[in-house]
Amino acid sequence: MRARFCAALAAFALTFVVQGAVQAQGQGSASASGGAPKPAASQASQYPTAAVKVVVPFAAGSSTDMVGREVARILTEDLHQSFIVENRPGAQATIGSAQVVRAAPDGYTLLLGSNTSIAAAPFLIKDVPYKPLTDFVPVARVGSVPFVLVVRPDLPVKTAAELIAYARQHPGKLTWGYANSANQGAAAGMTKAAGLETTAVPYTGVPQLVVDMLGGRLDFAIIDVTNAAPQIKSGKLRALAVTPAREIGALPGVPPLGATLPGFELVGWYGLYAPAGTPQAVVDRLSAALLKGLGDSTVKQHFAQAGLETYPASAKELASFGQAETVKWQRLAHDAGITPQ
Questions:
Q1: Hey, do 41-144+268-335 and 146-259 end up sharing a CATH topology, with the first three levels equal?
Q2: Is this prediction's pTM over 0.90?
């Protein structure tokens, strides 16, 4: 399957209803035991009293999945209740996010958001069925991930400049893949900036994209270091450049893409979100536990081993950050020539 790229992204929005503490006069007892319903504040202070679902709208094995599982582990240990990851990949995260849309906004269904679902969505697909900055409450920013330009090992190029030259010599022959906004935005931006004629291929997840590269069915991609590093170190994929402005510890010696295309820089990020209307006390409890865990040296080591970095920020900071990222992605999509599909 080869097709010109088209983007689709995730969507999510929810409503929340809090029961009153006192029944109207003339009604029967509030419960079979005769007790009155607990006030919302009391319920929030006891949160969580049951297992919590953390929806990861990407495939198992993806960098988003790794971050989601670490978030679930941190919250499970601190709040003494099970936080369970549920992978719901497909359609650029819209399947999993739609599940969150339908859930009650009570703190028991959360979503691991990212630059794809929060900042880029409105500029990649038409009629996004939610407003990323208002339909969700930020809980905390979690981590960041660099990306790396990789090619199949039998492609006769060893640098980004050589790939660009090769693509110009073979117009319309090379293919690249994407499974999220960062993959798409980075590769589309690179190919447009370099004036290349290539074919983009959409995937439901980066692991599937990597499989096709290993099988020689895809020529290049810009993907997260989490998925790329093991294949690079084993010689199954060749790294040409990284997307941050400088070299990264996970791939020493691999130059920044900005050295070939001046000004090029891109880093992905992750944050935990709750539906709008979730009690503030619940959001605060989640945020405090998560930020505490992200400061732990063991957690930082887990992230580093996967080519990630902890990137903690409060709910308020994440809200401002999301606004700035939205502006950035609007510009990136425009510069890359991406039109909502």
A1: yes
A2: no
